[in-house]
Amino acid sequence: MIPDSPRPRFALIVITQALLGMLILLGLGTIALLPSVAASAAVSLPEYADLRAPLLAMCIAVVSLALLVLAVASLLVHRIRSGTILLHSSTRWVDAIVAAVACAIVLVIATFVIISNGQAGSPFLALTFTAGCLTLLVLACITLVLRSLLRHAILLRIELDEVV
User: Fold this and answer.
1) Residue 7 to residue 146: CA distance in whole angstroms
2) 13, 98, 116, 140: which has the fewest C-beta neighbours closer than 10 Å?
3) Backbone angles phi, psi at 77, to 5 degrees
4) Could you read off the pLDDT of 82-93 as tens digits, one per residue?
5) 103: pLDDT strictly greater than 90
6) Which residues contact 98 (CB under 8 A, 6 or more apart)?
7) Which of 146, 155, 20 has the alpha carbon at shortest distance from 93?
8) Strand, coil or helix: what is 5?
9) Cα torsion 135, 45, 60, 116: sign
10) What Rg value do the Cα atoms of the chain yield, rounded?
11) Please, which pLDDT band fits residue 7 given cuts at 50, 70 and 90?
12) How far is CA 134 from CA 54, 67, 69, 99, in A?
């Protein structure tokens, strides 16, 4: 722990953690509701009922990855508050976020392939999936840039500790 390092206000940390917790609860609720939504969609669109199981699995997997990212973000916010963010183990948690986003990109592409093979897509859906993949790719790149900044800050902190 680094006692003299500047930290965000406690109220900001509490609000951030509360909002992350609310998003996690929303994600868990989404996972709980997805099977019933998929069942009603299969009833209303029987010609695509055979796509129900693979698309449901893909949706649950994407939401689970989002929950993982939220949990890791919450952990990193806690590490910022406790002053332990400038440890090498923090970069592993950021790597977990990048890996989860990369897995989400693969899942989005796989979902698009499933929908295309089932002949259930449209040009708008293709555009939406493309935008989703690009958005996830940008998030991964931004996270990697921030990871490099974190690594640099860790190296500077180690160097400063050696000087002192």
Assistant:
1) 18
2) 116
3) -65, -40
4) 989 999 999 999
5) yes
6) 140, 143, 144, 147
7) 146
8) coil
9) negative
10) 20
11) confident
12) 23, 20, 18, 16
Diameter of the chain measured on Cα atoms? 71
Report the amino acid identity of residue 48: Y
For helices 52-82 and 88-117, the axis angle rounded to 10 degrees is: 160
Name residue, tokens 């400063």. Answer: 160
What type of residue sits at position 88? H
| Local confidence band at 69 (pLDDT 50, 70, 90 cut-offs) | very high
Q: What is the DSSP annotation of 110-132?
A: HHHHHHHHTT---HHHHHHHHHH
What is the reported pTM?
Answer: 0.89
Q: What tokens appear for 32 in the block? A: 């709980």
Residue 157 amino acid letter: R
